[in-house]
Amino acid sequence: MTEPSLFQEITDFGSRANPWPLYEKLRSQPVWLEADGSFVVSTFREIYALLHDPRISSDPANLLPEFADKAGPLAQAGSNLPPSFIRTDPPRHDTLRRIAMRQFGPPHRPDRVDKLTPLLEDVVTKLIDGLADRQQCDLVDDVAYPFPVAAITGLLGVPPEDEPRFSQWVGPIVDSTGKDSPEVAQQRADAFQQLGMYMFQLAQSKRANPGDDMLSGFVTDDGPDGRLEGGDLFSALILLLIAGHETTVNLIANGWLTLLRHPEALERLRTEPDYAVRMVEELLRYEGSVHFLPNRTAVADIEIGGTTIRKGHPIVLVLASGNRDTECIPHADRFDPDRADNVHLAFGNGVHYCFGAPLARLEAQLALTQLAKRLQNPRLVSDPPPYRPSPVLRGPIHLPIAYDGVLPN
Ligand code: HEM
To answer: How confident is the model at residue 283, as a pLDDT?
Structure first.
């Protein structure tokens, strides 16, 4: 136990540029009880164990009534829809996830991500072509933000002309500071509703005219578990849109920042074709974008790390701290894409392990490799850059860079 809270210091935006010394202090104790009744878990071993423990729930209904405000931004904003599968527990979670996975990966659609590759290459090529008429840009606004929008909308079959509207809705939903005023909370609820209405109309048009996209699969294909119907469909779609967007924006921005701070890695990315895979994996560990998972609840008392996590209390799993835990990860504070057995928590673990991990990896590999190959003499304009005001996601809100020119692809 501590007073004042180290965890509050970490979620304070002043520490965003360099939270690592605070995380190191946090790991002096695996589990902390906060003054508000939340349990904060900081070490790799304990986070991993809890992610596989059936006594922790992702369903906010299991919180004691006094913790109702800890249900998290997605739960509050979407309170008129059934919870998406990220906010449910097995066995219901597993059924909903299986239906969604049927349209995304093996064995039914092993080709889904591969088929997206040419579209993604084309999108990132055009975005980088667009930098050629100047010698400075904001890597977030100009590349990192629009690229994942194009990927997730391409995956689902959202027409490209609708992307700007879509981005407008996603921003307020995900960019919660956790301490929103009633006005901001209302804006978020409105955005959520508009996105839901938009997806409803799109689903109807796909039913009438199915294409080779994921949404068409959702509304026309009955697998062994049936279809996602009504509110479950919209909850799943909104989850995919949100979960697949800002996380990847931050990974690409954190990645480019890390590469500019490690010129030897940038040089290898330019010249070694296989380097991107290892480099992105290390990036996920070293500068991953989801810093903590705020949405777990104990459904029984759990003895762990010398503490008893009490039933009905919120649990916060600090993934980014676990990823720098030197007890489990050798020289965890060093960016080392050549490390062997790179095990990390960037995509979570257990039943809720990130659904979109193959797509996120591909997007980061494509974007960072093209940037490395094409931008001539790229450099940071300011270091550290300003960080976005989200407690859960960590990444620059803007990343101004300068360069001497852009080579053709
Ligand atoms: C779940 C991280 C990209 C879809 C998760 C979780 C994490 C995560 C940590 C676990 C949440 C939990 O346990 O409560 C990331 C990161 C990404 C990324 C760091 C990019 C760098 C994507 C993409 C998609 C996606 C591109 C969509 C195509 C999902 C979904 C879940 C999820 C649907 C919920 C899975 C479930 O509850 O079974 N992600 N994600 N994510 N992610 Fe991702």
So the answer is: 98
How far is it, in rounded angstroms, from Cα 285 to Cα 172? 27
d(CA 85, CA 59): 9
Task: Return d(Cα 383, Cα 399) in angstroms, integer.
Answer: 9
The per-residue pLDDT for 32 is 96
Report the atom number in ligand 1 closest to the C-alpha of 86. 37
Residue in this structure with the two tokens 């600090």, named with its chain if needed: 318
How many angstroms separate the Cα of 63 from the Cα of each of 33, 38, 48, 179, 211?
16, 11, 21, 19, 41
Give the pLDDT score at 82.
87
Q: Which of 94-108, 148-162, 297-311 has the highest mean pLDDT?
A: 297-311
Residue 371 C-beta-side C-alpha neighbours within 13 Å: 31
Our answer on whether the CB atom of 97 is closer than 6 Å to any ligand 1 atom is yes
Q: What is the ipTM of this complex?
A: 0.99
Q: Is the peptide bond before 337 cis (omega within 30 degrees of 0)?
A: no
At residue 2, the pLDDT reads 44
Report whether pLDDT(266) > 90: yes
Q: Tell me how far CA of residue 38 lies from CA of 71, 73, 145, 168, 328, in angstroms.
A: 12, 16, 33, 32, 25
**Which tokens hold the place of 403?**
């360069």
pTM of the complete model: 0.94
- 1 C-alpha to ligand 1 centroid (Å): 31
> For ligand 1, is residue 322 a contact (CB within 6 Å)?
no
Report residue 311 as tokens: 């039933």
Q: Which domains are present in the chain? A: 6-406 (1.10.630.10)
Amino acid at 5: S
Tell the residue nearest (CA) to atom 28 of ligand 1: 356
* Residue nearest atom 16 in ligand 1 by C-alpha distance: 247
Cα separation, 296 vs 62, whole angstroms: 9
From the number of C-beta atoms within 10 Å of its C-beta (0-12, 13-18, 19+), residue 378 rates as buried
**pLDDT tens readout for residues 331-369:** 999 999 999 999 999 999 999 999 999 999 999 999 999
- Residue 245 CA, ligand 1 centroid: distance in Å: 10
